[in-house]
């Protein structure tokens, strides 16, 4: 099932129009399609599971409330990315609590880890801590470009900046990550 068309065959644009007309089931389908995206982005930016759940839920409620103003100048997912990233950055600025390393959940049981898996988890934890230590603007572009796989243009649209500004933020973030992770090379 793609984000643009689900098993029901309706694309996001159609569902948005129906939701704007008041059909709650259309918005429920949009939530089904995009709630994982909202949570994943919030988690990667915030690094804390409960905060990510709160931000994702808040973003989806905000999207519903602001849906009448949505004009379709971007895709619904781009618009939702924008809402989630703003909410996540606001949470960081408000709480100043962003030291958690919950971004990538460990699945393996402690008793079954091999030394290679242990080293991999330590490396993942180091990368996660390094990303969490970045300033919020750099963290957002790293998450959206490198972890979510979005293009420079998409990241620029989501962050309401220019492609050169995104490239600059990514360059600075990569340098900071390189310094922070120098011992892991």
Produce the secondary structure layout.
Layout: H1 12-20, H2 24-46, H3 49-66, H4 76-95, H5 115-133, H6 136-147, H7 152-159, H8 163-180
Q: Indicate the multimeric state.
A: single chain
Distance between the termini: 38 Å
Q: What Rg do the Cα atoms give?
A: 18 Å
* Helical/strand content category: mainly alpha
* DSSP strand content: under 5%
Report the total helices: 8
| Average pLDDT taken over every residue | 83
Major pleated sheet:
none
Helix content: 55-70%
Task: Report the strand count.
Answer: 0
Q: SSE order in H/E notation?
A: HHHHHHHH
The geometry reads as elongated
Low-confidence regions: 97-113
Word description of this protein:
There is one protein chain. Helix content is 69%, strand content 0%. It has helices at 12-20, 24-46, 49-66, 76-95, 115-133, 136-147, 152-159, 163-180. The chain is elongated and about 55 Å long. The model is unreliable at 97-113 (pLDDT under 50).
Keywords:
mainly alpha, elongated, 69% helix
Give a short summary of the structure.
The chain is an all-alpha fold.
């Amino acid at each position: 099932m793609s984000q643009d068309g689900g098993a029901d065959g309706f694309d996001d644009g159609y569902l948005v129009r129906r939701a704007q007309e008041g059909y709650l089931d259309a918005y429920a389908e949009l939530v089904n399609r995009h709630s994982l995206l909202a949570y994943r982005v919030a988690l990667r930016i915030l690094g804390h599971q409960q905060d990510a759940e709160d931000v994702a839920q808040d973003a989806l409620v905000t999207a519903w409330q602001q849906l009448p103003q949505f004009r379709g100048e971007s895709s619904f997912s781009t618009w939702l990315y924008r809402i989630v990233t703003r909410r996540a950055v606001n949470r960081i600025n408000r709480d100043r609590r962003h030291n958690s390393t919950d971004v990538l959940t460990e699945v393996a049981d402690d008793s079954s880890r091999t030394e290679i898996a242990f080293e991999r988890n330590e490396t993942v934890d180091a990368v996660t801590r390094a990303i969490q230590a970045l300033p919020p603007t750099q963290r957002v572009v790293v998450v959206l470009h490198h972890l979510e796989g979005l293009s420079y243009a998409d990241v620029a649209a989501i962050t309401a900046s220019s492609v050169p500004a995104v490239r600059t933020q990514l360059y600075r973030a990569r340098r900071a990550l390189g310094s922070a992770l120098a011992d892991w090379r």
